[in-house]
């Protein structure tokens, strides 16, 4: 029984520590930053994904490999990199490429 309790305490401690970990942006492209907010799908010219932050900023989010994880009306925190040398059809905010999803959940 003590061994099981020990493992439970160890697992709980590791879980708490991992949730408090900060993201090291030096692991990503220079200029990368973290955004968080609500994900919205807009059915404009084939569709696009937008992230709206709580302070009212809008980003058009793109990703070649992570698009399947985006869900309408979910909340996400992600590492992004600005795309300055391209334009989009939707034009619904600053165009950014999603490099990593830190957290995503339904509302």
Helix content: 10-25%
CATH class group: Mainly Beta
Examine the coordinates and then state which fold CATH places here, giving the name of the CATH topology.
OB fold (Dihydrolipoamide Acetyltransferase, E2P)
Taking the sheet with the most strands, its summary is: 5 strands, mixed, barrel
Strand order of the largest sheet: 1-2-3-5-4
Please give the number of β-strands.
5
Distance between the termini: 38 Å
Low-pLDDT residue spans: 10-20
| Architecture per CATH nomenclature, i.e. the level-2 architecture | Beta Barrel
Average pLDDT reading: 80
Radius of gyration: 17 Å
Offer a concise description of the structure.
Helices cover 17% and strands 39% of the residues. The chain has one helix spanning 2-19, and strands at 33-42, 48-52, 58-62, 74-82, 94-106.
Plain-language structure description:
With about 110 residues, this protein is of the alpha+beta class. It has a single domain (about 25-105), classed as OB fold (Dihydrolipoamide Acetyltransferase, E2P). Helices cover about 15% and strands about 40% of the residues. The protein contains 1 helix and 5 strands; from the N terminus they run H-E-E-E-E-E. The protein has a 5-stranded mixed barrel. Strand 2 (about 50) and strand 3 form a beta hairpin. It is globular, with a radius of gyration of 17 Å. The chain starts with a helix and ends with a strand. The relative contact order is 0.22. Mean pLDDT is about 80; it is low at about 10-20.
């Amino acid at each position: 029984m003590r061994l099981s309790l020990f493992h439970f305490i160890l697992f709980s401690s590791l879980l708490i520590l991992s949730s408090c970990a900060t993201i090291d942006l030096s692991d990503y492209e220079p200029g990368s930053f973290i955004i968080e907010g609500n994900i919205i799908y807009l059915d404009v010219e084939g569709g696009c994904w937008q992230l709206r932050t709580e302070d009212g900023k809008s980003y058009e989010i793109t990703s070649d490999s992570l698009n399947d994880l985006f869900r309408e009306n979910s909340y996400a925190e992600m590492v992004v990199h600005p795309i300055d040398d391209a334009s989009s059809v939707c034009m619904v905010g600053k165009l950014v490429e999603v490099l990593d999803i830190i957290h995503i959940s339904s509302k």
